[in-house]
Amino acid sequence: EIGVENREGEIYFFVRDNGIGINPKHHEQIFGLFSKLDPKIDGSGIGLGIVKRIIEVHGGKVWIESELGKGSSFYFTLPEDKLSANIRHPH
């Protein structure tokens, strides 16, 4: 599931799945560069780390909410004024 909503001057985006979930002790770790929770899974481990840095440069926040066995929700926010300015005047 993918969604977006406007809350008090911030735009909230989310991506939700119904996978295996991520243990809360790993929530901060997954946003590190070259961080992989399972070395058997392909990938470089930089995806969420890059997302976090891009969002923060634009004044937003990124976080995860997850329950083992039920899935994860990834959220990020962007200030509405910055988002609106970039849409009107792309760089």
List keywords for this structure.
single chain, 91 residues, alpha+beta, Heat Shock Protein 90, four-stranded antiparallel beta sheet, 2 helices, 4 strands, 22% helix, globular
Give the topology, please.
Elements: E1 2-7, E2 10-16, H1 47-57, E3 62-67, E4 71-79, H2 80-88
Antiparallel strand pairs: 1-2, 2-4, 3-4
In percent, how helical is the residue content?
A: 10-25%
Spell out the helices and strands N to C.
EEHEEH
Low-confidence stretches: none
User: Based on helices, strands and strand pairing, what is the structural class?
Assistant: alpha+beta
> Sheet bearing the most strands, described?
4 strands, antiparallel
Radius of gyration: 15 Å
Mean pLDDT: 83
Number of helices: 2
Specify the CATH homologous superfamily. Histidine kinase-like ATPase, C-terminal domain
CATH fold descriptor = Heat Shock Protein 90
Oligomer kind = single chain
Distance, first to last CA? 30 Å
Number of domains: 1
Q: Quick one: CATH class?
A: Alpha Beta
Per DSSP E runs of 2 or more residues, the count of β-strands stands at 4
Describe the structure.
With 91 residues, the chain is α+β, with helices and mostly antiparallel strands. The protein is built from two helices and four strands; from the N terminus they run E-E-H-E-E-H. It has helices at residues 47-57, 80-88; strands spanning 2-7, 10-16, 62-67, 71-79. Strands 1-2-4-3 form a four-stranded antiparallel sheet. The termini are far apart. The relative contact order is 0.24.
